[in-house]
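Margin note: ligand = threonylcarbamoyladenylate.
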Amino acid sequence: MNTVILDATPENISKCAALIRKGEVVAFPTETVYGLGANALDADAAAKVFRAKGRPATNPLIIHVADKSQIDAVAEVSDDARRLIDGFMPGALTLVLPKRGGVPDIVTAGYDTVAVRMPDHKVALDLIREAGVPVCAPSANTSARPSPTRASHVYDDLKGKIPAILDGGMCPLGLESTIVDMTKTPPKVLRAGAVEIDSVAEVIGDLDTEQVMVDTLAALKIPTNYVPKAELVFSAFYDNMSEVIARYYDSNVLTHGARPVIFCMNFNADKYGSRNVMLMGESVAEYAKLLFERIREAENLDYNLIIAEGVPMGGMGTTVLSRLIKLSGGKVI
Ligand code: TXA
Ligand code: MG
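Resulting structure:
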């Protein structure tokens, strides 16, 4: 199959909406990462998403909507869920809710719950609205690869496997949505993401966050976790972090002939002298936004070892740390 990259013009959005209505899959930008979308009410179309990504059938998809009322058609919405929908959607928050009939089992991997979100991205919203159906979409990477934040990342992973990629430029947030399971009491955070957990707790009170990091580690046992082409390790947030990293860098060059690169905050770059560095911005938020992008860049530059600076826990720091744990397989230096 030939894969075309289409600029996100109104004509091309219409073309892609027509493909979705016909039961095809299309990659599209959201504010978090690129998604690989299909008609969520069409089991055959959803099956194509799993096939293109090589995704295990046991891992359910998020349903994306263009309008809050579309959520009520696929899920039962409690009062707390309604408050979160009103407070955060459109936005990078995904809610797991009791599923209504009409959503094919393949989409929810047989669970009686369904994950829903309304992306805060004009191209995504226009596409879903024009398709006229809710759109199930995982991140548009090959299973076990980092999520794509540019159309070219999707192309690198899925060329020949999908008909079209809508190119809306770089995703503004650069990492996936926060997922909260509203069917649990208290509601349980399943994934730390682009919306801070504390801001969700401000709206509905107590959240079960105990397992955010534990689950991230447990996930390492299933085949859906990240496999960067370059090995990744990260430093805990020590006082002498840059010394720990520099030492690890040098010893790997000497003993293993590695070609390492350090992911560091801009203001730390000087501490690494002439060693290879890639800059992660001035803040934890920028680090979060650039992480997946820099990993793919590092791979394309043939670095085979990424040594990433840690960040303080809390807020987006929690999200970044949960991704670093997954990406590294838990390898802390
Ligand atoms: O930002 C995002 O969430 C992106 C964009 C494209 O929207 N999507 C995304 O999808 O990251 P995906 O499939 O890569 O990750 C969705 C996660 C999976 O870990 C899946 O197990 C979980 O959501 N999930 C989906 N439905 C669920 C359900 N009914 N119960 C529990 N977890 C669910
Ligand atoms: Mg994913």
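The longest strand covers residues 93-98.
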